[in-house]
Prior knowledge:
By secondary structure, the chain is of the alpha/beta class. It has helices spanning 18-41, 107-120, 136-148; strands spanning 63-70, 89-94, 101-102, 125-130, 154-156.
Amino acid sequence: MGSHITARGPVTPSMNITPLIDVVFLLIIFFMLVNNIVSDESVEMVLPELDPPHTRELGEVSRVVVNVAPEPFSKQGRAGYPLEHPGRARYVKVGTGVGSQFAVEDTVGITAALTALRTANPDLQVLLRADAALFYDEVRPVMGAVTAAGIGTVNLVAYLPEE
């Protein structure tokens, strides 16, 4: 038995990395989409600090985030003075998606949106986010809309100081 010599010369092993590049691109797209979904749930605001923090972290629960968004502000201007704000709300955002933004006075619309979500999921919990400087009369109608929608659990979101 003899050895075969090819016309091209010695054969060198090579690796095809095209499938690896495909997987990396899919992972990048996945993380970009997840980041967009998470950022859609939050509205820029300064949350109140807790003193002392009697809190609990939520596990995997069925929840909807309700944001009471403040009037526009500069975070740098409020860095040392978180309560330096007019105290008025701009709008209320219920969850994410088109049609999830309501005027603060539109308690009927907020209640309808929350009722539709609760009908789809009876164990729904609300995470209520409001700026630390907002007046209570800006948040009270939203809490009334949550109650009118028949949702029994409302979690108030606050800033947890770093340990």
